[in-house]
């Protein structure tokens, strides 16, 4: 890659930061109806920015909610096409009094840019625009074809994106999808997350007597809905931390030896988790390490349980109802629909007599993994290494990013998560910020990546 | 018994009701500090009423809270002595707008006396005073010796009564204790409750990680406090409804064949419970009937459970804490202290690794039973039958009345519960009332009882 690209980025740094501050000044909070116009304004800002760097076929697509911005540059004939996803909407800012500088007046302190959206995700989206501009202005062309898809509803769960992607499959077709909306493991440690867990969940509502009963008058003679719920919930795991729902593990892909080795090489010890979380010990499925348990093994967790009296002291009630909220984190190749069916069958089989049980379903998301040795993943690793001068960590994530599964499933192309945030940058919280070190190095990395990709795919 | 006593009651009915209305007009709500003077006023009213019928040694004893009123008549040499307990305090009256007539302006509609305290317990206490007056004024003497103990803190759990009883054992010594503060099974069916269950309880607080965790990032690698709590709670019972806490049943007195037969003779069918409670079936300890399960078998019920997210939908949290509130109903000869120790040992033995558990204790109360065939119980049965002309039902209660256990344990004398309320008389609720049928028949029954007792003990 031509050194002049880096020089361009260095020379235009102040200009870029000023532009980003403009972008960050728009309070595009997607969850608040009173900011609807601001969200539209941010969409227009993005469209203009894409136009200014030479993207074409730019359109602000309306949806039932906030718009999706599209733009493309497809002049690299015979070269791979990359779909870049980002979002221009942000989280609310309350509690406002905890912010050290106003959330929509970006402020640089100690080489960190403070503003709502600085890291999640306006800052990271903006880097993509400027990295491509640097290559275009310096070399007059790009080593790859590019399509931008920048939405305005990520912070409210992207309710309209799946339909948009489904309806625009052709427009969005590409060889790979690149998303910069995640974090590096720690400062100076470039990280590519190549897999995420999926999600499905159920709520269990146990009903017993038609009203709360006096535990003295009826205790011992009526099935207590809490007892019944506890019996069901306790049946989900055995003492070894394994999930006992029949068939639950049937579709789970086993970890490859190469991946197992890569995780061990990260050198993460249980002691650091124990200290950080304040637990007496780590606990989970027998035969797996903590990283494996959170990255490549499925889970079933009770997120909430409630029934009866919760106040101070005692109320001798035998309650009418008891409830539990349960989610499973899923790994390839588990299918959320299948797992939900297994859960329902398990609950039915383990419901004791004397109560009725209703099961309702929560939103589902498929697990995702881009093969560890995929050329697009390996090329991203090399790009990072050129800038950060340390080996790239290849990780998977325990959480779920619904849009990733959306792309994976609808567009059926590898997704590459190249995140430049840091875990302590207060996403969704007061004083969100972005380390400018990663703003600079991140853009350099992206430039390298496009050249690495040129001949890799 | 001389018929003139009954005639006296009939002739003075209007006068008695007017006096009772005076008593009911005093808003002696023990739980509300602003009614402290009213409670004192009610105590003085009781003292005056006792004086007017010829009781002696009357004293309004101050306590740390509301006063205890004492009075006695001990001129029946060689005859049994009865301690009569009642309470002159009442429950609050909110929500006031649900009352059809003002709670402290007693109103008779459809032969029911509506007022707060009409049934619980001013009305029933007043009946004792007037029944004795009827005998005294008609015959000039009493067939028994009498001591009155009328307190003003029953509705707040009698916090100062145990100490008063302990300090005044000599003053309160008697052959039996009679309490009229319970209900008949149904209209026209006189009932003597000769046993009540005791109570003890624990709160289980499970602590895991120091803060709530993201179930995606840490799910599967940390012991979930809800899972741990559910494992503990589920260990308390087996599938047959039996309590599996080691030693739990060791002190339980077995039901005598006579009692078993008496309960069957009540002819109460599970169907009526099922309809009333809206359950699909009755459920409990194998080998016992519903009445046995609620009257003579101990229980362990979870009264409340809570941890994690309880709102609409889902929050993928792995919570830091989970809690359960548990009470046991105890039967003779279980000792609450022993049972609490067994519970603590059981919880300790069933706590899974990865969490810490704290157990805190709730108030305890001993179970009580006056032997079914005790002469004082049988005499009470005969007294009822003389007035109601149907066989008396001998029952036990599943609940706990702490003062009963207090008397049983400190004074060590048989307690006879002669209740004249009905289950639908809205104790503690708006439109509390008292069926005047039982006001009239109840006083007659009490008069008969004192004569039945004269030669029974």
From TrEMBL, chains A, B:
An example molecular function term from Gene Ontology annotations: succinyl-diaminopimelate desuccinylase activity
Domain Peptidase M20 dimerisation: 194-353
Keyword entries, A-Z: Hydrolase, Metal-binding, Protease
Tagged with keyword DNA damage: no
EC number: 3.5.1.18
GO BP of this protein: proteolysis
Database matches in SUPFAM superfamilies: Bacterial exopeptidase dimerisation domain, Zn-dependent exopeptidases
A Pfam cross-reference name: Peptidase_M20
CDD domains with a match to the protein in the record: M20_dipept_like (cd05680)
Protein name: Succinyl-diaminopimelate desuccinylase
Native organism: Pseudoneobacillus rhizosphaerae
Recorded name of the encoding gene: dapE_1
């Amino acid at each position: 890659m031509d050194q002049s690209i880096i020089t361009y980025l260095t020379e235009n740094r102040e200009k870029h930061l000023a532009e980003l501050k403009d972008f960050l000044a728009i309070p595009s909070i997607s969850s608040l109806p009173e900011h609807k116009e601001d969200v539209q304004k941010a969409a227009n800002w993005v469209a203009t920015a894409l136009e200014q760097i030479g993207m074409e076929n730019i359109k602000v697509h309306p949806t039932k909610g906030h718009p999706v911005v599209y733009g493309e540059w497809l002049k690299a004939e015979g070269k791979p096409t990359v779909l870049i996803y980002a979002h221009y909407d942000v989280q609310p800012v309350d509690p406002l009094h905890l912010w050290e500088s106003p959330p929509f007046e970006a402020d640089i302190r100690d080489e960190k840019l403070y503003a709502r959206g600085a890291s999640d995700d306006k800052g990271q989206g903006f880097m993509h625009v400027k990295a491509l501009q640097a290559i275009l202005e310096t070399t007059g062309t790009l080593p790859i074809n590019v399509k931008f898809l920048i939405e305005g509803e990520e912070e409210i769960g992207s309710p309209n994106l799946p339909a948009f992607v489904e309806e625009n499959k052709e427009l969005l077709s590409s060889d790979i999808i690149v998303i910069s909306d995640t974090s590096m493991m720690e400062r100076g440690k470039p990280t590519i997350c190549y897999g995420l867990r999926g999600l499905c969940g159920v709520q269990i509502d146990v009903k017993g007597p038609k009203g709360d009963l006096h535990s003295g008058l009826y205790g011992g003679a009526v099935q207590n809905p809490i007892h019944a719920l506890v019996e069901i919930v306790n049946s989900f795991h055995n003492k070894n931390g394994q999930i006992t729902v029949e068939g639950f593990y049937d579709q789970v892909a086993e970890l490859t030896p190469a991946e197992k080795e890569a995780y061990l090489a990260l050198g993460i010890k249980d002691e650091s988790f124990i200290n950080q979380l304040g637990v007496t010990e780590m606990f989970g499925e027998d035969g797996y390490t903590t990283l494996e348990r959170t990255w490549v093994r499925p889970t079933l967790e009770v997120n909430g349980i409630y029934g009866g009296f919760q106040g101070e002291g005692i109320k001798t009630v035998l309650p009418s109802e008891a409830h539990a909220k349960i989610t499973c984190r899923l790994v390839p190749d588990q299918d959320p629909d299948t797992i939900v069916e297994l859960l329902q069958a398990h609950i039915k089989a383990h419901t004791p007599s004397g109560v009725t049980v209703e099961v309702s379903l929560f939103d589902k998301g498929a697990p995702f993994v881009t093969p560890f040795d995929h050329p697009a993943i390996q090329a991203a690793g090399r790009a990072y290494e050129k800038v950060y001068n340390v080996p790239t960590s290849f990780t998977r994530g325990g959480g779920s990013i619904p849009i990733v599964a959306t792309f994976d499933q609808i567009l059926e192309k590898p997704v590459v998560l190249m995140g430049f945030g840091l875990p302590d940058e207060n996403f969704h919280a007061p004083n969100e910020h972005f380390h400018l070190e990663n703003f600079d190095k991140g853009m350099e990395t992206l430039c390298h990546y496009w050249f690495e990709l040129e001949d890799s795919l």
